[in-house]
């Protein structure tokens, strides 16, 4: 029996039973290129292009980012199209931009334009999925677990959902990381034990055969217990949002004092962009032209 393809789409997205390939995402690249070529962008200012990029072009790929783990080559291609449209008004230019794309993708209060890098946004978007997703996508989501573990809070209520040894329920740390795996053998409890195994009648009840467990038993008594089910909270706002995850993923930069001078309510985008270029050293000034060896009369 020859292998075929499931040529079915739902809400514009391909229905797949395996990993998303570069070829599957060609339609996304086509949509971005078609939209950029449909605008008479050579008469638009930089401020106008920025508005179209943020409100239209970015929203096209957001739908895909929140549904799939996109191939790296596709997110790079999306970034390239957005970058080219911002600086040159077309999606397929090979010219360079006035300011590095990494700086453009910073938040406005850190000296950027607030445009979201497609790769970072895709990583943030897939963090909302749980382990009920398909196995191939879940393996890719697990690549972000080292980032997630430092940005979520495990709240023990009945302890039935958390691993006793390997989940970071103990003030942001797991017992295995704190005491080593030897403590599992000393306790006489199985490695797949839940936190609920050391809770009895609403009280903490740890076995005390080792000094490490004595210390943990004493400190864990400060963790209040209540009726209900265990919870995992996003540290910054309490509830998870893709934007908060994106802000945590991207490299943090120093906030700039001039951002409020450039971007303020009812500002003129064209003028604000021009001032932003000046602060970002993006204008082609005489000193730059001399460094580039451009002949001047």
TrEMBL record:
It comes from the Eukaryota. Residues 240-295 form the Reverse transcriptase zinc-binding domain. InterPro entries: RVT-Znf. This is Zf-RVT domain-containing protein. It comes from Cephalotus follicularis (Albany pitcher plant). Pfam families: zf-RVT.
